[in-house]
Design brief:
The chain is an alpha+beta fold and about 200 residues long. It has helices spanning about 5-15, 155-195, and strands at about 30, 35-40, 45, 50, 55-65, 65-75, 75, 90, 105, 115-120, 125-135. It is built from two helices and eleven strands; from the N terminus they run αβββββββββββα. The strands form three sheets. Strands 2-11-10-5-6-7 form a six-stranded mixed beta sheet, with no helix packed on it. Strands 3-9-8 form a three-stranded antiparallel beta sheet, with no helix packed on it. The two termini are about 30 Å apart. Mean pLDDT is about 75; it is low at about 1-25 and about 140-160.
């Protein structure tokens, strides 16, 4: 086997078609801003729209990964697990969901700044999500930093899976490659030692 081809084979194995950009039939992407600014007391809309327009049947807004902000499913708001700091301060545009409007309306308080994630499911059983960083207007309050430089950057669903595999797989592939090269060098040294003994 040609040793020069191993890195390319490993890259293909772990990344695959991750850079494909064509949407599959019935799929969609989400349009949204990466960041938004607000002042305490403002009523803001965190915009999130499907492209093309797609009938949305489930919308789940979370903040900072674990805090439930607003959930809409089965034709109704499902606020049973909604964090208490959001009670009475959120809404989605129910009449616009069939047109792909998944936006969240929020009355902002001090504790509402953070990284918001909207997970969307359509009537065709396709899913996607968006990430928006809600910050205080410059100089007016806390402004959390993004945990990732990729936050808010959207790829088609199959590409997102490929990127995750690449991020996790490339270090593993490098370790395997280095181990394999080391093993080959050791085998070569053992062969040379055996030849010199003869």
């Amino acid at each position: 086997m040609d040793l020069n081809r191993i890195p390319l084979l490993l890259l293909h194995f772990f990344v695959g078609d991750a850079i494909a950009t064509d949407l599959e039939p019935g799929s969609f992407s989400l349009k949204f801003p990466k960041t938004m600014e607000a002042e305490i007391g403002d009523t803001v809309i965190l915009p999130c729209y499907t492209d093309p327009q797609t009938n949305v049947i489930r919308v789940e807004w979370m903040v900072n990964v674990t805090t439930e902000v607003h959930v809409y499913r089965k034709g109704n708001d499902d606020l049973y697990n909604q964090d208490s700091i959001y009670k009475g301060k959120t809404s989605v545009f129910k009449e616009e969901l069939p047109k792909g409007n998944c936006s969240l309306q929020l009355v902002v308080s001090q504790s509402h700044f953070g990284i918001y994630k909207c997970s969307v499911r359509t009537s065709k059983k396709t899913e996607d999500s968006c990430v928006i960083n809600l910050t205080a207007v410059s100089g007016k309050g806390p402004s959390p930093s993004l945990n990732s430089t990729m936050a808010g950057f959207q790829l088609p669903h199959n590409a997102t899976i490929g990127v995750v595999l690449a991020v996790l797989g490339v270090p593993a592939a490098c370790c395997i490659l280095f181990w394999w090269i080391k093993k080959k060098k050791q085998e070569k040294m053992q062969d040379q030692l055996q030849i010199s003994r003869w």
